[in-house]
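Task 17 of the worksheet. Students: predict the tertiary structure of the chain below and write it out as structure tokens. Keep your answer in the requested format; marks are given for formatting as well as content.
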Amino acid sequence: MAHTAARTLGRQARHRRIRKRVVGLTTRPRLCVYRSHKHLHVQVIDDIQGRTLLGRSTLTKAPKGTQGTNRGNVSSATALGAAVAEAAKQQGITRMVFDRSGYNYHGRIKALADALRAGGIEV
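Model answer:
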């Protein structure tokens, strides 16, 4: 098995383990993160109603502070976190459960969570 395939399978196993305990409620929805090589995708999900309340990505309009076409870096993650925090506050969401989807809490994932906290969201 290739190194990247083993890494992906390990991440998926961690994600399944995390999802057993992490549930998004109406009062505190789940913030789910997907990280690709070039982009980050974020969804705010209410698991009780089965609805996606909010979704943002670095694929959409380039957040302020991003340089060039590479939006899969820490500065883009920080800008994305600030944009999600602003949009969530407009919908009246101030608390979220952070679902890192099995990714290490490091680099882009950590920058995203820190930007959410700086934006006034309790994660």
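Marker's comment: The helical segments are 3-19, 74-90, 108-118. The first helix runs from residue 3 to 19.
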